[in-house]
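I'm curious: can you give me some protein's one-letter sequence along with its backbone structure tokens because I've never seen that pairing?
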Amino acid sequence: MLEPVNEAQGVPKDVAAIRQQIKAFLNAPARDGKKIGNAKWGVCAFYDYDGEPIYVGQTNEMLRSRIGRHLTNQRTDAVAMNVLDPFEVAEIEVWPLWELQDRNSKDAEAKTILNSTEHTVFQLVLTKSSFNAVLNEGDIAATNAIELPPSSRGRIIPDDLYEQRKHPDVRI
């Protein structure tokens, strides 16, 4: 049994270490110096320990919030429907849409850009999958492909845990 980081919190050390790595990724600067996780609009892709894409999703509420919900609790369709197992996620890639930062979440033009970005990312990671599959909970609406903004990708599993967890039998 793993020792808790803090008796009051009861959080196992490996979980705390992964949460810290997620936080570090989301606080990392994008190319323009803004924190990646602070983008209100954007698309994210999750990859497993073999680099296979396992999920693509969008948000218009902040990448930090959406990714956090996916990886830390059951309050997302992808996790609740057992499409996304947070313990299988080793890397995250995000495409922040900074040009939409000040847009309202009901802005139709911004939603169109977001949907097109999600579709283009989905098609991109699908072509990179050796299984030609991404395990989303539903279909992503087909749109015209667009030129994607720069992405940021990083591993959310600390090095020591990565070595320990990369074998599939350990993660199951």
In short: The beta strands are 42-47, 53-59, 91-96, 152-155.
